[in-house]
């Protein structure tokens, strides 16, 4: 039997609304589980409920209803035990910028009850592990964004947790620093049997890093599986057409909906995306139909389904549109 490091069942959380307005239902019956040693990506646009989920699982917030177990402990009834077995790396840096990397790690170890010598040797191991030995004696405020983030992750690991929570770990990092952190996280789960729950709103991050994905939308999990499995469920190709002008009167969708071999069509601004049986036959048909109505086309691409298509097929809107809705 697979044992689960994390189980959340039917979590509901409503925040009070501003000025006695209606409350915000951040979680609306969220249910998922994560086997031990797996990196689970909780993927969703801004405001989907990812941080609220993490706060409940790390005992920082309470659900209105529902249950959750972390490494077998109940987040409502066994909060101390839960805190003991988890590491939490919040969205915002948790280190003291005026202290050195070494000092931050030793202090964290001491807070977790390690002796000074054990905390120091653990700190030195983690600095080495996260390629921060050279920076160990420098104040954290002098670190690059990538170095600060690696230190944040190291801080979450000082007390050897069983489950590590990474809330939007690479937001604000440049592509190189992001790739470095991805490599570190992969090693954590692969070699050390740690279970990792990371939240992200980067489709590429979810695709590259997560063994398993749970896609969150409006406080619910709408799809679960491996990134490859979720994409493979969508047969056929994706055709994307950039129109020179936005489809102001909404006529383009109707024009293409009747063509053979074309399934879902979404038009957002001047970008049209269609899921099709075969890209090679759909492209000439789509372009022919647009040309007949004298609708000018800027560019066309055909691709295999991406996680964006997975999101689209479960929620009816593209990931980018969902992000913009919230922004
Ligand atoms: N303390 C709060 N009071 C009121 N509403 C809140 C509070 N915290 C979160 N919300 C709302 O709950 C919903 C879910 O927020 P949450 O932060 O969990 O989403 P998220 O998926 O983590 O988004 P992000 O990626 O932007 O952090 C949003 O509509 C948000 O505005």
From TrEMBL:
Keyword hit for Methyltransferase: no
Cellular location(s): Cell membrane
Protein name in the entry: ABC-2 type transport system ATP-binding protein
Stated family: Belongs to the ABC transporter superfamily. Drug exporter-1 (DrugE1) (TC 3.A.1.105) family.
InterPro entries membership: AAA+_ATPase (IPR003593), ABC_transporter-like_ATP-bd (IPR003439), ABC_transporter-like_CS (IPR017871), ABC_transporter_ATP-binding (IPR050763), DrrA (IPR005894), DrrA1/2-like_C (IPR025302), P-loop_NTPase (IPR027417)
Main location: membrane
GO terms classed as biological process: daunorubicin transport; doxorubicin transport; response to antibiotic
Domain of life from the UniProt record: Bacteria
Keywords (A to Z) from UniProt: Antibiotic resistance, ATP-binding, Cell membrane, Membrane, Nucleotide-binding, Translocase, Transport
Stored PROSITE patterns: ABC_TRANSPORTER_1 (PS00211), ABC_TRANSPORTER_2 (PS50893)
Any GO molecular function: ATP hydrolysis activity
Topological relation to the membrane, as annotated: Peripheral membrane protein
UniProt domain ABC transporter: residue ranges: 6-243
Signal sequence bounds: none
Keyword Translocase: yes
Pfam name, any one: DrrA1-3_C
């Amino acid at each position: 039997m697979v044992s689960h490091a994390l189980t959340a069942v039917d979590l509901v959380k409503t925040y009070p609304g501003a000025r006695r307005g209606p409350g915000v239902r951040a979680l609306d019956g969220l249910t998922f589980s994560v086997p031990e040693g797996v990196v689970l990506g909780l993927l969703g646009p801004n405001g989907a409920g990812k941080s609220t989920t993490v706060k409940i699982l790390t005992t920082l917030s309470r659900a209105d209803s529902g249950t959750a177990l972390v490494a077998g402990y109940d987040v409502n009834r066994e909060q101390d035990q839960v805190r003991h077995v988890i590491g939490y790396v919040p969205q915002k840096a948790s280190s003291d910028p005026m202290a050195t990397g070494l000092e931050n790690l030793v202090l964290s170890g001491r807070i977790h009850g390690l002796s000074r010598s054990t905390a120091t040797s653990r700190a030195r191991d983690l600095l080495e592990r996260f390629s921060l030995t050279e920076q160990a004696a420098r104040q954290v405020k002098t670190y690059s964004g990538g170095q600060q983030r690696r230190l944040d992750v190291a801080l979450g690991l000082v007390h050897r947790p069983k489950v590590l929570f990474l809330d939007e770990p690479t937001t604000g990092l440049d592509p190189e620093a992001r790739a470095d952190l991805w490599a570190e996280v992969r090693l954590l789960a692969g070699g050390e049997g740690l279970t990792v729950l990371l939240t992200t709103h980067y489709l590429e991050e979810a695709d590259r890093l997560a063994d398993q994905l749970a896609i969150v939308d409006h406080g619910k999990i709408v799809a679960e599986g491996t990134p490859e499995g979720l994409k493979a469920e969508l047969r056929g190709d994706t055709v994307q057409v950039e129109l020179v002008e936005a489809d102001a009167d909404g006529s383009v969708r109707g024009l293409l909906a009747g063509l053979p071999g074309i399934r879902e069509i979404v038009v957002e601004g001047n970008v049209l995306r269609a899921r099709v049986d075969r890209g090679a036959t759909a492209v000439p048909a789509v372009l022919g139909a647009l040309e007949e109505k004298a609708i000018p086309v800027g560019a066309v691409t055909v691709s295999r389904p991406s996680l964006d298509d997975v999101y689209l097929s479960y929620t009816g809107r593209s990931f980018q549109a969902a992000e913009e809705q919230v922004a």
